Amino acid sequence: MNTQSYTSTAVPAEGTRSESLKAAALALVLGAGLVFTAGFSHSSTIHNAGHDTRHALSFPCH
Question: Nearest 5°: phi and psi at 57?
Fold first, then answer.
C-alpha cells in the first residue's frame, strides 16, 4: 500500500524577499553599467566585443 505524506510550505520571511529585491536591483544596475560601458566606449576593442556578444546571444542591436 502506498502512502503519501504532505507537508505545508512555509511562507518565506520578509527578510528573504528584501534580500531578493536587493540582489535583483544590484544585478540590474551592474548589467546596465556593463551595457552602457561597452556600448559607449571609445575603445573599439571593448565596443566590438560587446557588439559581437549581442549577436552571439541573438539580441538585436541595430
Answer: -95, 10
The C-alpha atoms of residue 38 and residue 51 are separated, in whole angstroms, by 8
> Which is more confidently placed, 26 or 57?
26
C-alpha cell, 17: 524577499
- d(CA 57, CA 62) in angstroms, rounded, equals 14
4 vs 30, more confident:
30
The answer to whether the CB of 12 falls within 8 A of the CB of 20 is no
Please report the pLDDT score of residue 30 as a whole number: 94
User: How deeply is 47 buried, as exposed, middle or buried, from its count of CB atoms within 10 A (0-12, 13-18, 19+)?
Assistant: middle
| DSSP code of residue 13 | P
Mean pLDDT confidence for 9-38: 83
